[in-house]
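Table S2 (text version). Query chain:
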Amino acid sequence: MQTSSNQTASLFQTPREILRGTVNQIVYSNAETSYTVLRLILNDTEESVTVVGKFLDVQPGEELQLQGQWSENPRYGRQFRCEHYVRSKPSTLKGIQRYLGGMVKGIGPHLAKQLVRYFGFDTLRIIEEEPERLSEVKGIGASRAMQIRAAWQEHQAQQEVMVFLQGHGISLNHSIKIFRTYGQETIGLLRDNPYRLATDIRGIGFRSADQIAQSLGLPFDSPFRAEAGILFHLQMMSDQGHVFYPQTSLLAEVHKELGISIEKLTEAIAVLEGRQEIWLEPFEEDDVAVFRSVLAACERGASSALLKLLNRHTLKTPSSFDKAVDLFEKKFRIQLAPAQRQAVEMALCSPVSIITGGPGTGKTTIIRAVCELIKEQGADILLAAPTGRAAKRLGEATGEQAKTLHRLLDFSPHEFRFMKDKDNPLRADFVIVDEASMIDIFLFYALIRAVPEHAQLVFVGDVDQLPSVGPGNVLSDLIASDTIPVTTLNQIFRQAQHGLIIENAHRINQGLMPILPAPKPNQLLDFYFIPRSQPQQVAQIISDLVCERIPKRFGFQPLDIQVISPMYRGDIGVTSLNRMLQQRLSNEGASLSFSGNEFFRGDRVLQMRNNYDKDVFNGDVGVIEEIDAKEIKMTVLFDGRAVAYDRTDIDELTLAYAISVHKSQGSEYPAVVIPVHSQHFVMLQRNLLYTGMTRGKRLVVLVGDKRSLNIAVSNDRIRKRCSRLDWRLQEALL
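Corresponding structure-token output:
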């Protein structure tokens, strides 16, 4: 399609290089992601160059104007990375022939040749303005002429939409997603309400939609903007862990951010409630709790389903309980402490119960005892945990099969829902869930509604660890509700007499500085603090520890050592430490560069989001086993299971020599190294340090300065999450 000079200028304002040429060959194209590799013949030099980027249905013969920049690929050489493009009508007879033969439905190469031979340079004008004349060409009747005209109009409409989108500053990637969602109605729909992009198109948030709206000239106080701003702020609060947000705070913060009056925002809340996009309920004395509807449904539904389980009568302690526990102790050569014995009895006799405690307090021993006693009764028992690593540890510790909650609940990636629910419940008499502090309100609701009404449910976890990444504060709320029997374990059982990991973890949890021993010559401890004042010094020490000092002194392989940092930015942040460690550990052999990342065979990598098709989940850590740079493919081993990646999903992986504290939850590592420094001042928090330290099984090393360590230990200020699960349970049972 011929674009105007104004349209073209608006697309190419950014100082990037511009190429003009004809598509000669499509080397590779992915229909799902639109990622394409093509060969382009340049107009001015007739040189053939390689172009990579996202293109929508580009075919050989098309003339393109591209904006982007050159890059050097280690394997494929010089490539032009396209960021924007516009199509131009071909200017030569050969170009018109190839263009029609490849782009317009109903016209193949043979017919295209006939049309160009008959109409010459007038061919495209004839199709657009006088389609009835197409029947002058032998073999084309009136019906086929109209089909060709319709196909041409559809093609032109696509080009018009793409130019419109990119002309308003929308990236090529997002433009393709938008056109595939709205088709030829795109321009009309976006002129009416561009904020629909924030809810309809994954990857386009409110801020991008707001920029487009401003470009289109929508009033700053448009009702569409007010409604979208409210939903966006609620989503941001959800991302921070809140299930609802107080209306007074919501109105004040959105008013400050967008400049829309409180009156208009209040009207927007009423409209959203009427459309059932939000849920309102009285909160405290003079405020209102504002929920996204999906979160309100989860919290209310979870509370209702849990109450059905709780309302069942408490079971009596079996007469054989003491004898069964004695047999367990004899079989495993373990003696349960009174609190542990009480926890086992409570689990066996309560419809729902909670066992909480810090590291080394015997939580796993209790699970083993419950499993043994339940099996003796011939009952069916299911074990689960939120993450794959946590499920694997649970299975190894109990000798029973343990699954991730997603597997237990039979999540279907194609239907994007859990197949287990109240109509298709779990087949179990007893369900035990470990690492319960990681469960958000979405997963909690899915679990509770799938537990059969006759079954007993036990949650096990450490309430002092970080709460879930997703919204909610489930374990804390359940305990705070005072409606579920809870056993809190305080006595430390695990770890050798002189071990400091667990002792120091408990000290930190109590607000006490950890014991920082001065190691004696040839003495191997399990906890060290290495003082360094400058971030660069901290980073260098961490690199030396992982690559040389710990392997040489303790015998751990570098991949057994996990660096855990509270932030991504800075010299001692996750990103910088990963680059430093990769350069020392894995910078030779097969490699692959993709989307700004470089991977080598043997690299430790982390899955950044749930991929249900591959059965790998956010936080899973693996090692790259094979790389095929030519085909842009790799194979990653996750706990011995090979998972294949290609250019469509490699961007779900990142380096994992260093990871964040949140990403480490639910995992244990032989050795852990943690920077503690004022460069991460805002993240010097007790629960972050406590959670990171308790990931280390045999060795924990802190590197930094004592002042920062003291700040972290002293700082127990945790931003309260807005949730009402505890209130709902209390209200229902009072």
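Notes on Table S2: The chain has a mean pLDDT of 89. The chain is about 40% helix and 20% strand.
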